[in-house]
Structures are given as structure tokens and as C-alpha cells.
């Protein structure tokens, strides 16, 4: 009897359970039926998932090809695959992928049931905008009044709800022309054999619902399903999971409602909150022990998140000791905040901390500017996370467009991108004529060239025909060469490589290096990944017998899924700066959480939108705090320039929610407010207020007093205030919102130090 036909009971000494706490063991051993694992930050959820998969194989005798694990990023999927393979010799046969990658595999095998060709390509974000610009132009819609990004968001929302253009109703989408735009956009994609990222999910749901045989096939194939980061699933992903788990019901979802921070891109927190309603016999296991942070940091996170009503109750704890208290600092202004952070970083680095273990987190990308400017002046090495994706570089997108057009000449998006690259004298006017001709003839732009050329000038016609001949020649040669040789031929025949060599600049040299790296990637894909894809998707083809055309087709589809490969993915000997959203899943020894002010964090727009938005901002604060392992700094400023105006913001309400006993409130010359409730005594400037700035009042007197920035004063009529600036004769003071900022004579008898 084979391993996969037997089952056995794990012994207490089972190595897959070694080192696990009691709750983790329960989560691994609970193999049957619906299971919700509520995994707090730093609780070892990936370790639990991978050990659970290995346990199913090694102890329960489940065939690895009957196990599915879905996560959200390619990086997370790779890490999970590697860990699972290290735990079990059969781990490499488990299907572990992102939602989108799984859907591509399913659609590549069955999308013909929906009327699409199986060799579809994936539309990236930039091409999606370009497509919608063309749609708006065709429909005579002014893109300045209603920009393409508006329709991108609305179309994405419709697809998330599994609504095709014919399903759109006025009650949900009130725009008069939305249905028209959506319909034309979908027709354009289908005629080009393209899918956007939302299509991958929506069409998979439609496929399952319209073809029960396909659904039943995958229900039997995936008998044990794992979903990581379940709190981040949208409506379409929720439906995919529910449909796949509908027969065997061995569904294990792992997530944390306290870390649901992506509603702006469709994530629905109710998916995880309603799991027990969806599966009434569900078992819920809480992982509350944190393995990376000290208790003071966790207590602060617990304090903040406890103010959110919609959550599963849990309280993180650590066995790493209380650790240092959280250092809070209110600087005089934004520049002073940056100077303080820089000085603390230098102290920490001088004490032996590596720069790579330090991160600065902010709510919005614009907050990085002051830090970048200061760090450059101070020669402090830093890196910004969120760099340009390798696959979004111009030279890579150009090469991919050439290859896609060679693989499928119906691809108008690729045609438009490279028909005049390098420059061939085919301008915008000619391209418009090709577009119009293709539309009238009902064919692709590439296929319209022979007929259209008859009505063009000889010069223009010859240029188009020469381009078509070049692509056709490459199509005929594709299967005579291997992938590496064919890419070389494409770069040579198209003139692209000669163009870059002729530029002879540092940038063009870098682009050539990137193209060389593309070849390395392609060879590696053929050697290390292609066989796995063939096996996983159960393709009826032998790797040794595959043509270069077939290999490139799969490679290009895989490239379309590479959305999280950035220039610098790993830590380096530099300070890291990133938004809090980008920090999800990472941890650092020392974290500086900057701009912790109402209006910045939480955002003004969230405060105005109401409690639901503030609750998501609070979850974001919870994520930010729990990125810290040993040291956490929270900083803000009394006043700062924001969007061209001087703002006087309150300290963030999230800081006020942290118990004072956990804080080390720093004072000093930069002027920290030491009030009991940690809130400045002047009120917050109301967001989006049309009220004019407070007038500056001047009073003339003769006696001279000396004040310094940060002095706390009281005025007989105006009340308490803080000195912002002063010189020999005058002093500028920030009072409450009622009185604003006033410039007074320093000798005014009504002004007294407190």
C-alpha cells in the first residue's frame, strides 16, 4: 500500500510538531472540515501552514496533488513552496500559488468554454490605461472630465462583483456612459485575446458556475485547501474559494481581521468575520503568541486595536520580556522631526545596530521627501521600497511586446507599442489610420496592413509592409531556434539592440544589461519552472517535444503575473523607507513611525468619511506598530507644511489610545508637549476648511522680554500658547484655534511664562 493510501496518527514526538506551541499544534492536527486560524502578527502562521501541509502528506497519507495553498504575492508563494519542499520530499508536488496564478492555469486549460482562445495574454496596469484612453476617444468622451483611472476603478469593482457589461444596472453604476465604456473595453480585450487581472478572477468564477464538470474536476483535485491572508480576499476570491471547497469542505483559512488594510483595492473584511456563518461547523483557533516583538510593543498594538468593534477578540503576548518603552517625540516642525530621527538613527548605528535593521514608516509616499533631502546631505544611506518593477522597465516591455506580437499577431496593444520602435517613420497619424482600418475591417491592426497600404502613399505603405514582413519572418523562424537564440535574433532583426548601442550612454548600457538579464531569466524559466507548470496544469505535452513557440507562450503568460518583482527586494546596508502598506509582512529591529498626527495618520479624508474608514486606519496603525521587534519610535510635529499650507495637527488619536505607562515621552529643546493627554492645547486645523488663515495681530510696547522657541506662555486674554519664533522685539505665538497664530511685542505685559 502506498504512502498516499494510508493514514496514521501522529505521535507526541512527531518532528512536524516539535517546537510548536499548543495552539499551533491544534491548528496542524485539525485536518478535517472548515478551520479558521486567527493568526496575530508575528505568530508564525507561515510555519503553521507549511507544517500542516507536510502533516497532511506525511502523517495523513494525503496525496500532495490533492492539496492547494493560495497566497497573495509571488514572493510569499515561493517562500511557502520552498519551506514545504524542505519539510516533505513530496512538497514540490503541492499546488502553491497566488490566486491570479492559479486562475491563469485553470483558464489556460478551460477558457475556450467561455469563447476565448487558450493562448491569451495579460494586460498590465499601463496597457489598461492605454486601452481605456482609446475607448474614451472612440466614444467621444472627454478624458479630462472623466479620466481613464475613474473607469479602471469602476470596471474593477464591477468585475469584483462578477458583473459582465450586460449585468451592469443603473442603480449601482450611475454614470450614464459607464456601461458603454465597460462593454467596448471588454470587446477590445477579447478581440486582442487579452485579459486584465480582474478578468482572471471573474472569468474563473463564471467558468465554474457555467461548467459544473470543470468545477467538479477541481473540487476533486483540491480536497484540502489552504488560503493565507484571508482577510485580504475580495468578493471574487471569496467565491472561488467557496466553490472549490463546496464538496469536501476541508477548507483552512488563515488571517487576522486586525490586519485587514486593503479595502481600497476591494478586500472585504466581512469574508473573515463571517467565516463561522458560512461554515457553521467551523473550528476557530487563535494564534496569539508573538515570536518577534517585546511585550511593550505588543501591548501598545493591543491598546490601539481594542478600540475597533468589528474584530475577533485576541491579545498578543510575547515571552521575549517587556523590552524598552516606546519613545514618543513631538518636534517643533517637520524639519525638526527629520533632524531628530536622523540623530537617533546615528546613535543607534554608533551603538552597533546595522542600517538594514532600521525602517522609517509613513502613511503616504509624499512624506519621504524631507527625509530623503536630509539623509542625502548627511550621507546617511537609504533605500525607498516600491521601486520600478523589472518587468515594467521600458526595454523589457518593448521586448515582451515584440515577442507577444510574434506569438499572436492579433495583439493590437503590442503592435501599437513597437510598430515605431526603433523609429521607422511610422507616426501617430499613420497609426490612427491603421486603427481605423482594422476597426472597419474587423481584423487586427497587423492584418489590416496589406489592404490599408493600397490607399497610402508609397513611402508610408512600404514602411508598414516592411514592419509586417519583419514580424512574419521572425514568426517563421521561431521554431528553428531555442529561446535564448530567438531572443537574440529578435533584438538583432528589429534593430532594438543597435539603437541602444548607438545611444552609447550609461542609461542605454544599463538597458542592454537588463535585456541580457531577460535572457538569463528565460533560460532559467525553461530549465527550472517550465516542467513544474506542465506537470501542475497536467498539460498533454512532453517538455522535450515542446516548440520554442509553445515555451514562449507560457513564459509570456507567466511574466504577466510578475507584479511584485522590484529592483531591490532584499534588505541592504541602508535605512529602509516605505509606506506602512508596503511594510506588511516585514519586521525590523528598530521602527520609526513618523507623522503620527490626525490629518496625516489617520488621513483627513478618512476622518471625514466616518468610523469605518477610521477603523481601517487603526488597523493600519496596528500593522505599523507590530513591525517593530525591539525599538519603536513614534514622532510627530507641532506644525508642518502640508500641501502648501502650515498645519497645526493634533497628535494622532492612535497615540492617545496607547497607555502612558508604555511610553517614554521625550522632551527637549525642540519642544515636546508634556500635557497629560499628550494632545497639543491648540486645536486641529479642520480639513478642507475654506476659512481664511488667522490674521497676525501686532501690539506696540516698549519693554523687552526674552523668549525662545518652545516656551509655554499664558496670555491674559488669549489664554495658553506656545512660542513658535521670536526675535529681540517680537514673538510669534500659537494659541488655540479660536485665536490662531499671533505676532506680539515681546514686552507685552499680558504675556507671561508658564
What does this structure look like?
This protein is an alpha/beta fold. Helices cover about 45% and strands about 15% of the residues. The chain is built from 28 helices and 23 strands. The strands form 5 sheets. Strands 11, 12, 13, 14, 15, 16, 17 and 18 form an 8-stranded mixed beta sheet that branches. It has a 6-stranded parallel beta sheet with strand order 3-2-6-7-1-8. Helix 5 packs across helix 6 and helix 22 runs antiparallel to helix 23. The protein starts with about 20 loop residues before the first helix and ends with a strand. About 5% of the residues have low confidence.
Which oligomerization state do the chains in this entry correspond to?
Answer: single chain
In terms of DSSP E residues, the strand content is 5-15%
Principal-axis shape: globular
Unreliable sequence segments = 565-571, 668-704
Helix content: 40-55%
**Biggest beta sheet attributes:** 8 strands, mixed
Radius of gyration computed on alpha carbons: 30 Å
Number of strands: 23
Structural class: alpha/beta
- Distance from N terminus to C terminus (CA atoms, Å) equals 86 Å
DSSP helical segment count? 28
Arithmetic mean of pLDDT: 85
Amino acid at each position: 500500500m502506498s504512502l498516499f493510501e494510508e493514514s496514521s496518527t501522529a505521535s507526541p514526538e512527531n518532528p512536524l510538531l516539535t517546537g510548536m506551541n499548543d495552539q499551533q499544534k491544534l491548528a496542524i492536527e485539525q485536518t478535517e472540515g472548515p478551520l479558521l486560524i486567527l493568526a496575530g502578527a508575528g505568530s508564525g502562521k507561515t510555519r503553521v501552514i507549511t507544517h500542516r501541509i507536510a502533516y497532511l502528506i506525511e502523517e495523513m497519507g494525503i496525496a500532495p496533488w490533492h492539496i492547494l495553498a493560495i497566497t497573495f504575492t509571488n514572493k510569499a508563494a515561493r517562500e511557502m513552496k520552498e519551506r514545504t519542499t524542505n519539510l516533505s520530499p513530496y512538497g514540490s508536488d503541492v499546488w502553491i500559488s497566488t490566486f491570479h496564478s492559479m486562475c491563469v492555469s485553470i483558464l489556460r486549460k478551460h477558457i475556450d468554454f467561455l469563447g476565448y482562445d487558450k493562448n491569451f495574454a495579460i494586460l498590465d496596469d499601463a496597457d489598461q490605461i492605454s486601452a481605456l484612453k482609446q475607448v474614451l476617444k472612440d466614444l467621444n468622451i472627454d478624458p479630462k472630465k472623466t479620466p481613464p483611472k475613474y473607469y479602471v476603478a469602476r470596471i474593477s469593482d464591477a468585475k469584483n462583483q462578477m458583473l459582465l457589461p450586460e449585468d451592469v444596472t443603473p442603480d449601482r453604476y450611475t454614470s450614464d456612459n459607464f456601461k458603454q465604456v465597460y462593454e467596448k473595453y471588454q470587446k477590445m480585450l477579447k478581440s486582442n485575446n487579452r485579459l486584465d487581472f480582474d478578468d482572471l478572477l471573474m472569468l474563473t468564477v463564471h467558468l465554474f458556475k457555467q461548467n459544473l464538470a470543470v468545477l467538479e474536476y477541481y473540487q476533486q483535485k483540491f480536497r484540502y485547501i489552504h488560503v493565507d491572508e484571508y482577510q485580504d480576499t475580495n468578493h471574487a476570491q471569496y467565491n472561488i474559494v467557496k466553490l472549490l471547497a463546496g464538496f469536501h469542505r476541508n477548507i483552512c483559512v488563515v488571517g487576522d481581521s486586525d490586519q485587514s488594510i486593503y479595502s481600497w483595492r476591494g478586500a472585504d473584511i466581512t469574508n473573515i468575520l463571517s467565516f463561522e456563518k458560512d461554515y457553521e461547523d467551523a473550528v476557530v483557533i487563535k494564534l496569539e503568541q508573538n515570536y518577534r516583538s517585546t511585550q511593550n510593543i505588543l501591548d501598545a498594538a493591543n491598546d490601539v486595536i481594542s478600540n475597533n468593534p468589528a474584530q475577533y477578540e485576541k491579545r498578543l503576548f510575547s515571552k521575549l520580556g517587556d523590552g524598552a518603552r516606546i519613545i514618543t517625540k513631538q518636534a517643533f516642525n517637520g524639519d525638526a522631526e527629520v533632524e531628530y530621527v536622523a540623530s537617533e538613527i546615528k546613535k543607534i548605528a554608533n551603538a552597533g545596530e546595522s542600517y538594514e535593521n532600521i525602517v522609517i514608516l509613513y502613511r503616504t509616499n509624499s512624506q519621504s521627501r524631507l527625509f530623503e533631502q536630509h539623509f542625502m546631505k548627511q550621507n546617511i544611506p537609504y533605500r525607498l521600497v516600491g521601486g520600478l518593477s523589472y518587468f515594467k522597465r521600458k526595454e523589457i516591455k518593448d521586448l515582451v511586446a515584440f515577442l507577444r506580437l510574434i506569438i499572436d499577431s492579433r495583439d493590437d496593444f503590442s503592435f501599437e507599442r513597437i510598430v515605431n520602435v526603433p523609429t521607422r517613420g511610422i507616426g501617430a497619424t499613420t497609426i490612427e489610420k491603421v486603427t481605423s482600418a482594422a476597426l472597419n475591417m474587423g481584423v487586427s491592426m497587423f492584418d489590416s496592413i496589406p489592404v490599408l497600404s493600397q490607399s497610402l502613399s508609397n513611402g508610408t505603405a512600404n514602411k508598414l509592409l516592411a514592419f509586417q514582413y519583419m514580424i512574419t519572418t521572425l514568426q517563421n523562424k521561431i521554431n528553428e531556434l531555442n529561446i535564448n537564440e530567438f531572443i537574440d535574433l529578435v533584438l538583432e532583426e528589429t534593430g532594438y539592440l543597435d539603437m541602444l548601442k548607438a545611444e552609447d550612454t550609461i542609461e542605454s548600457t544599463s538597458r542592454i544589461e537588463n535585456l541580457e538579464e531577460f535572457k538569463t531569466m528565460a533560460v532559467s524559466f525553461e530549465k527550472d519552472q517550465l516542467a513544474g507548470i506542465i506537470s501542475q496544469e497536467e498539460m498533454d505535452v512532453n517538455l522535450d517535444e515542446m516548440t520554442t513557440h509553445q515555451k514562449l507562450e507560457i513564459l509570456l503568460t507567466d511574466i504577466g503575473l510578475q507584479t511584485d518583482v522590484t529592483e531591490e527586494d532584499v534588505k541592504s546596508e541602508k535605512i529602509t523607507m516605505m509606506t506602512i502598506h508596503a511594510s506588511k509582512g516585514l519586521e525590523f529591529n528598530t521602527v520609526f513611525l513618523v507623522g503620527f498626527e490626525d490629518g496625516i495618520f489617520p488621513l483627513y479624508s478618512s476622518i471625514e468619511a466616518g468610523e469605518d474608514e477610521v477603523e481601517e486606519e487603526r488597523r493600519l496603525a496596528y500593522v505599523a506598530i507590530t513591525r517593530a521587534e525591539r525599538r519603536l519610535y513614534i514622532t510627530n510635529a507641532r506644525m508642518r507644511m502640508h500641501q502648501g499650507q502650515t498645519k497645526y495637527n493634533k497628535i494622532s488619536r492612535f497615540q492617545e489610545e496607547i497607555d502612558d505607562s508604555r511610553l517614554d515621552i521625550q522632551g527637549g529643546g525642540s519642544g515636546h508637549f508634556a500635557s497629560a493627554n499628550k494632545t497639543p492645547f491648540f486645536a486641529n486645523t479642520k480639513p478642507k476648511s475654506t476659512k481664511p488663515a488667522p490674521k497676525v495681530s501686532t501690539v506696540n510696547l516698549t519693554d523687552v522680554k526674552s523668549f525662545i522657541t518652545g516656551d509655554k506662555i499664558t496670555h491674559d486674554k488669549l489664554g495658553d500658547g506656545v512660542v513658535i519664533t521670536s526675535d529681540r522685539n517680537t514673538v510669534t505665538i500659537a494659541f488655540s484655534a479660536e485665536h490662531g497664530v499671533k505676532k506680539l511685542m515681546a514686552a507685552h505685559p499680558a504675556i507671561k511664562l508658564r
